[in-house]
Write a structure and sequence with these properties.
- The chain has one domain: Vaccinia Virus protein VP39 (Rossmann fold).
- It contains seven helices and seven strands.
- Helix 4 links the parallel strand 1 and strand 2.
Length: 213
C-alpha cells in the first residue's frame, strides 16, 4: 500500500474525510518528507519508517480533532512541540486556527520554523522558550501536548496561558491513573476519551482538563 493510500484509509477510519481531503493529505505527507529530511541529522523522532510515521504521528495527531471545538479562529498552543506533533498536522487541517508551537530546544524550534516556511503554514508561530518563561500576546483556547511531561506539570504550566474557559488537552498512552491523582488544585478533568488509532496497537487516551470554578 502506498503512503497516500495508507493515510487516506486512516483518515476515513477516523471519520475525517470531509475535512481532510486529498489536498490536505498531500500537505500532511509533505510535512513528513520535511521531518524525515531533518531527522537524518537532528534526531527529531525515533520513528523513521514512513508507514509508522503516518500511523504514529499523523493519524495519532488527527485523532484528537473530534474532541476539540470546531469553531473558526481558535487559538492553540502546542507545548513541547518537538518535531511539530501534534501542532503541525492540526495546523495543516485547520488553517483557520492560529497555532503557537512552543519548544525550548533551539534546534527543534529551527526545524519548526523551516517546516512552517516550506509547507507553508501562515497560521503557525514558533517560539523557542521554556513554557514557564513564555508570556503570550493573547490567551489560548486550547493548550495541547503529546510528550511534554506528566499531567501535573503540564496542567500547572499550561493553565496560566488559557482563556477563562480554555481547555488543557494531554495526549497519553495507557489510562493515567497515577498521574490523575497528582493534578494541582484548581484543575478539573472534563473527559478522558479512549482513542483508536488505525494501524497503531496499544492504548491511547486524551485527558481533557479545565480550570475549576
Amino acid at each position: 500500500m502506498t503512503s497516500a493510500a495508507l493515510l487516506a484509509d486512516g483518515v476515513a477510519v477516523l471519520g475525517l474525510t470531509a475535512s481532510v481531503g486529498a489536498d490536505v493529505q498531500a500537505k500532511l505527507l509533505a510535512y513528513l518528507a520535511v521531518l524525515d529530511k531533518w531527522n537524518r541529522t537532528h534526531n527529531l523522532t525515533a520513528i523513521r519508517e514512513t508507514d509508522r510515521m503516518i500511523t504514529h504521528h499523523l493519524l495519532d495527531s488527527l485523532a484528537v480533532l473530534p474532541h476539540l471545538p470546531s469553531r473558526a479562529g481558535l487559538r492553540v498552543i502546542d507545548i513541547g512541540s518537538g518535531g511539530g506533533l501534534p501542532g503541525i498536522p492540526l495546523a495543516i487541517v485547520r488553517p483557520n486556527w492560529q497555532f503557537v508551537l512552543l519548544d525550548s530546544n533551539f534546534k527543534k524550534a529551527t526545524f519548526l520554523r523551516q517546516a512552517a516556511i516550506e509547507l507553508p503554514l501562515p497560521n503557525v508561530e514558533v517560539v523557542a522558550a521554556r513554557v514557564e518563561q513564555y508570556t503570550p500576546s493573547a490567551p489560548f483556547d486550547i493548550a495541547i501536548s503529546r510528550a511534554f511531561s506528566d499531567l501535573a506539570v503540564f496542567a500547572g504550566a499550561g493553565r496560566s496561558l488559557l482563556t477563562p474557559d480554555g481547555r488543557l488537552v494531554a495526549m497519553k498512552g495507557v489510562y493515567p491513573h497515577e498521574e490523575l491523582t497528582h493534578l494541582p488544585a484548581g484543575i478539573g478533568v472534563t473527559a478522558i476519551p479512549a482513542l483508536k488509532i488505525p494501524g497503531l496497537d496499544g492504548d491511547r487516551h486524551l485527558v481533557i482538563m479545565e480550570r475549576a470554578a
